[in-house]
């Protein structure tokens, strides 16, 4: 479920950015026919529904920097690992605030981010279920209200239990009108609702609302749905005016106002309705509408097609240059592995092990596992080594401790909440094989050696290189215990 949640989040971010572009384009097209603005929402729908798409030099996504590679076809802004510096900094701030307010309740080495991600996924699913249930109840209520409707002719029904005309039904859509409409009002109402049927708006609107339900956490998607509904109604009004030759603006606007006065409106996600919303804006648009020439329409359509293509495609990502050994490794440290395993919590055993694997191994020693101390502060890591049979104890000791101290400083930079790093060496060359040697470096000692907090160095690979250069210049005077 976590991967699905992050897929939806990334699609929603891309759709939100596209929605901002469409909203800006609507402002530029405010004097153009509303059907052009209505068509623009296709780009947002594509972003909300299709996770993978083609790359294009026209893409409006070029100014932003996703984490995705071109060959994936999927734009990633947030990954399940949440490796971005901003997110790391935010979590550090939250953790430190919690420690200040409730020192006794300090979070142990458990990965809080993982818990928050899982909680976010659960909340998202609950929101989807609640909104789907609400829509089902609304659908059932509307269906009950038209159960006693009387057929006037063909697919047109009249009911005294409704107060606004609307289209209802997906497979066999019908027009329902309230009782008491004048002959003139009924004529315009039927023209409007039949236009919705001809354009399949009665299918488009519920499908659009399902997209809103899936992306309910994004306010830009709710705004997009409201503006799309407005554009749907306005473009439908304009289509009716085109059918009547534009000679019935005032009576058509009067019919719309009359239905709006008696209507309480339908709920979100319902079928298109004559007097549903934005009545003032729609009447103003009706009275000001002038059908543009075919040449102007052709120009508009070309611009809209280009804009939809730009909003619906991904940028051509610049392929990263493959890392050579010199680029990946620096002074014996695997920078790629270190940056990939950077973590906020010492309790993440896989990442801690990956960090140690990316560091030089002390000479004469064989790695023998790690032990994480996460029950209570100070949180620590014990790195266990075994002195190999070929090693000379006198020659191995000083060099091993120097390497360990350098590695410990880097671990304090890459593991945010670790307090101490310990070295434990077992000597299999001793008569009984049980002799051991140990030492511990604390975060305070590492910061004293470097003159301050070492965590900022791990913000990027270049910072880590600077830290490696500094520790390589240090002379450690550290007595083994």
Biggest sheet overview? 4 strands, mixed
For the biggest β-sheet, the strand order reads 1-2-4-3
Low-confidence stretches: 67-71, 83-89, 102-110, 318-326
Mean pLDDT over the full residue set: 81
How do the SSEs run, as a string of H and E? Answer: HHHHEEEEHHHHHHHEEHHEEHEEHH
Helix content range? 40-55%
Radius of gyration: 33 Å
Q: Could you tell me the number of beta strands?
A: 10
Portion in strands:
5-15%
How many angstroms separate the termini? 49 Å
Structural class: alpha+beta
User: Given the structure, what is the number of helices?
Assistant: 16
Shape: elongated
Total domain count: 2
What does this structure look like?
The chain is an alpha+beta fold. It folds into two domains: 2-76 and 118-312, no CATH class; 325-473, no CATH class. Helices cover 53% and strands 11% of the residues. It is built from 16 helices and ten strands. The protein has helices at 2-28, 34-49, 85-101, 112-145, 183-198, 201-214, 219-243, 249-262, 279-288, 294-312, 325-328, 335-340, 349-357, 393-414, 443-450, 461-473, and strands spanning 150-153, 156-159, 166-168, 174-178, 329-330, 333-334, 365-373, 380-387, 420-427, 436-442. Strands 1-2-4-3 form a four-stranded mixed beta sheet, covered by helices on one side. A four-stranded mixed beta sheet has the order 7-8-9-10. Helix 2 runs parallel beside helix 10 and helix 5 (183-198) packs across helix 8. The two termini are 49 Å apart. The model is unreliable at 67-71, 83-89, 102-110 and 318-326 (pLDDT under 50). Residues 7-286 form the Peptidase M56 domain. This is Peptidase, M56 family. The chain crosses the membrane at residues 7-29, 35-55, 116-137, 207-228. Residues 338-435 form the DUF4825 domain. Keywords: Membrane, Transmembrane, Transmembrane helix.
């Amino acid at each position: 479920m976590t991967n699905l949640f992050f897929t939806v989040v990334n699609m929603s971010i891309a759709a939100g950015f596209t929605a901002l572009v469409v909203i800006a384009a609507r402002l530029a097209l405010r004097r153009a026919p509303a059907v052009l603005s209505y068509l623009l929402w296709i780009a947002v729908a594509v972003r909300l529904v299709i996770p993978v798409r083609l790359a294009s030099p026209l893409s409006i996504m070029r100014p932003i920097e996703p984490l995705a590679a071109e060959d994936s076809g999927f734009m990633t802004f947030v990954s399940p690992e949440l490796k971005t510096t901003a997110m790391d900094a935010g979590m550090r701030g939250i953790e430190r605030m919690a420690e200040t307010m409730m020192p006794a309740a300090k979070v142990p080495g458990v990965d809080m981010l993982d818990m928050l991600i899982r909680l976010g996924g659960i909340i998202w699913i609950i929101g989807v279920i609640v909104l789907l249930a609400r829509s089902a109840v609304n659908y059932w209520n509307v269906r009950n209200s038209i159960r006693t409707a009387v057929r006037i002719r063909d697919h047109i029904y009249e009911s005294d239990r409704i107060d606004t005309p609307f289209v209802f039904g997906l497979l066999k859509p019908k027009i329902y009108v309230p009782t008491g409409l004048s002959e003139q009002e009924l004529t315009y109402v039927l023209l409007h609702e039949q236009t919705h049927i001809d354009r399949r708006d009665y299918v488009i609107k519920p499908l659009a609302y399902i997209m809103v339900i899936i992306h309910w956490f994004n306010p830009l998607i709710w705004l997009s749905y409201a503006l799309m509904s407005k554009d749907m109604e306005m473009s439908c009004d304009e289509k009716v005016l085109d059918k009547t030759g534009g000679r019935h603006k005032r009576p058509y606007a009067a019919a719309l106002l009359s239905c709006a006065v008696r209507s309480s409106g339908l709920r979100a996600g319902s079928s298109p309705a004559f007097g549903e919303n934005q009545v003032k804006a729609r009447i103003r648009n009706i009275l000001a509408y002038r059908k543009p020439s075919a040449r102007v329409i052709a120009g508009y359509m070309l611009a809209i097609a280009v804009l939809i293509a730009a909003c619906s495609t991904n940028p051509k990502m610049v392929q990263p240059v493959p890392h050579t050994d010199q680029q990946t490794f620096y002074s014996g440290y695997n920078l790629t592995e270190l940056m990939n395993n950077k973590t906020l919590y010492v309790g993440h055993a896989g990442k801690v092990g990956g960090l140690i694997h990316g560091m030089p191994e002390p000479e004469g020693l064989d790695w023998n596992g790690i032990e994480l101390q996460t029950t209570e502060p100070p949180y620590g890591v014990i790195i266990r080594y075994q002195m190999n049979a070929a090693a000379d104890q006198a020659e191995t000791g000083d060099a091993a401790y120097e390497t360990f101290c350098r590695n410990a400083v880097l671990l304090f930079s890459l593991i945010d909440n670790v307090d101490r790093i310990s070295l434990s060496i077992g000597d299999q060359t001793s008569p009984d094989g049980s002799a051991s040697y140990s030492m511990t470096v604390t975060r305070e000692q590492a910061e004293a050696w470097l003159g301050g907090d070492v965590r900022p160095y791990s913000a990027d690979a270049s910072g880590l290189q600077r830290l490696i250069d500094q520790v390589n210049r240090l002379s450690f005077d550290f007595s083994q215990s």
